Amino acid sequence: MTMPARVHLIAAARPNFMKVAPLWHALAAAPDFTPVLVHTGQHYDANMSDAIFADLRLPAPDHHLGVGSGTHAEQTGRVMIAYEAVAMADRPDWLIVVGDVNSTAACALVGTKLGIPTVHLEAGLRSRDRAMPEELNRLMTDVLADVLWTPSPDADANLAAEGIPPARVTRVGNIMMDAFELTRPAIMAADYPAALGFTPGGYGVVTLHRPSNVDDPAQLARLVAALEQAQARLPLVFPVHPRTAARLATAGLDTRLAAAGVRLVAPAPYVRFMSLVTQAAAVITDSGGIQEETTYLGIPCLTLRENTERPITISEGTSRLVQVGDLVATLVSALAEPRSQRRRPDRWDGRTAARCLADLRARTAGAASAAA
Question: Among 25, 63, 209, 241, which one carries the catalytic annotation?
Answer without folding.
Answer: 209
